[in-house]
Amino acid sequence: MKNKILVVPGNTDLNRGDQALVWESIRLFEDLYPDLEVYLYESGSNQEEKNLQKAQTQSRGYNFITRILLHPRVKASSATTDSKEVNYSKITYIKWGFVAIFDLFNTLLLISRFSFLNKLGRSSLSLEQKKSLDLFPSLKALVVKGGGFLHSYGKLQDPYVMYYFLFDLMLAHRYNVKTVVLPNSIGPLKNGLAKYLVKKVLKKSSFVSVREEVSYNFVQEQLGIKAYKYPDLGFFLKSSTFDAKAYLLKHGISTEDKNILLTLRPYRFDGYKNPDRLYQEYLTEIGKLVKEQTERGYKFTFMAHTLGPSNHENDTLALKEVLGVLDAQIGKNVSYIEDYALTSQDIQKIYSNYDILIGTRFHSVIFALNEMVPCVAIAYGGNKSYGIMQDMDLANFVIGIEKVNSESISEMISEIESEKENYVQKIQSYHSFLEKERESLLASLNTVLND
């Protein structure tokens, strides 16, 4: 009988960072179990989105199933309206709220210890969701991929968001299936109910690990949960054999030039006052930065690291907005790449050809660091950027997305130029223990899963 695992919360091939985390999470378990059978949740609100989100990973032979607790967007939104918004309207949130209340009631029945309530909850599921539910009792483990999604900032919907992300762990606990949380960034949790829920669920997990010191301290001190600390799984990604130099030449990019690669994301600035103004200031400052650095002799590549499916996750929007405000003379020094066919391993190979990377997508930073390319990280959403760069002794090269300004980033670029050897030595020092850390992680998982 094969050892089955379900990797959650979902698979998103259009987000190359998430794809890398899914692939590296699976690779760990493939090293543990040669007879492994992998299941993943589909992502997307229509078939086109689902195909885009799973095609590359499905080609590796993994199985895709329907999520039991769907995101309210999938039920409440049509594929051509809400899913394409960057800033969701109040009406959208209200529609989602009604869907969430209904789903909360039905899924609470599924995690009840009373079988008759389980049957009642099951009756509300589709045929495909019932098949997913039937998989749970046969799982060797439910695996939370590496990454970071357990954070809240005191908003009204935070408890449901945490419930949505933790539901599969609770369902696994209902069937006495071991749950494994691979290196994540956890916290802050500023909503009391959300914090209580995270603490309650993680205490029942067989293995909880974090990817940086900030989260490690938070989990142990604020949640009172034993945690292990291991590097972000993206650091274990290996580049493909893809001919990146030839690819770049086709896009008019010569590796003989001084090149900076830029990754941006559209960002809603949830929880901030004047979010629209902050977003425009963020893009305006990036435009100023591009102008300043091209005048210093750099050429820029704007890379769409993540391509959707929603506009909130579609980097092309932010990049094209900046492109649209650059004058023609500056624009001659800027190239743009948007390519659905590239995998995370291809992307990492491309990044190896740059002098500096400026990344809002933190896994674009990790991919570049894997190739010894110095980076400036633009931090958003939780502890990951600050925590990991701090662990690498590179905290001086992080700036919050709400504080982005061309002057500060230009100063970081100048520091990289003058101290490049020292910067690269810090990357090498961090990388020197990665394989030992992976072996230690495998040993810990083996102990937990076979206890």
UniProtKB/TrEMBL annotation:
Chain ranges of the Polysaccharide pyruvyl transferase domain: 15-380
InterPro entries, per database record: Polysacch_pyruvyl_Trfase
Keywords: Transferase
Single GO molecular function: transferase activity
Pfam families per UniProt: PS_pyruv_trans
Coiled coil feature spans: none
Signal peptide range: none
Protein name listed in UniProt: Polysaccharide pyruvyl transferase family protein
